[in-house]
Amino acid sequence: MAILELQGLSKQFGGLAAVSGLDLAISTGEIRGLIGPNGAGKTTVFNMISGVYKPTRGRILFDGEDITGLPAHEVVKRHLSRTFQLTAIFREFTVLRNLLAAYHLFSKTGFWNSVLNTPLSRNEEAQFMEDALEMLRFLGIEDLKDEIAKNLPYGHQRVMSLGMALILKPQLLMLDEPVSGMNPQETKNMMDRIRETRDKKGVTIFLVEHNMKAVMGICDQISVLSFGKKIAEGTPQEIKANTAVIEAYLGVEDHAA
Ligand SMILES: Nc1ncnc2c1ncn2[C@@H]1O[C@H](COP(=O)(O)OP(=O)(O)OP(=O)(O)O)[C@@H](O)[C@H]1O
Ligand SMILES: [Mg+2]
User: Which residue of 80, 208, 241, 245 is surrounded by the most CB atoms within 10 Å?
Assistant: First the structure.
């Protein structure tokens, strides 16, 4: 069954059709890639799904429910979580407090409680600590729980932000360029963590990434956007051999690492 289905999804910014008539269905348990040249509309798709932008046209179905146009805090309650293209972390907080902030931010207590560090109820706190420590162990950064985020190497900051997205146990996780700016070793570690998130936690993954080696290595299926339109879809092997895809990338900057 499709956990996420996009039907004729479109977004217009003034005269610019950033996304046009996008149909896409992701099965439960899949790792799906969304690729395309710069400006193709990938982040705009994520922004519509996560409730940052309202679509101009079309529908978004999540787990069979129409979530089109719902605000971001309503979307997140439905166990759909994302990371952002640029690292969104609290630089002065410890790793554990970053997870706590994410937990507050996306739970009923809201943003200000998270920034002001309003205490959780005892039950909530016990539950949070159990979940957070399990999460850090799962991600292999348990030893870093009391480190200040800004002091961590970049790769670990990004793994922490994956933990922030996972702390509310999403069914679907959307990752916008999870390995951008990483060295090969950090990239491999992140891809392994993402694969394990699917394999061991059963989370369906939808990811945007310019690093073709990473995308081809991890995705079950890949959808390709060019100028806001889907031009191809298939397995990594099919996409690699697709002439429309090759043409769309010709003459543009090569991002492959
Ligand atoms: N808020 C906005 N207002 C106006 N135009 C926007 C807005 N957001 C995105 N765009 C435009 O929509 C198009 C698609 O942008 P988008 O960020 O979705 O591309 P992308 O595929 O994520 O690119 P990249 O790979 O560089 O991150 C671009 O032409 C962009 O300039
Ligand atoms: Mg983008």
Answer: 80
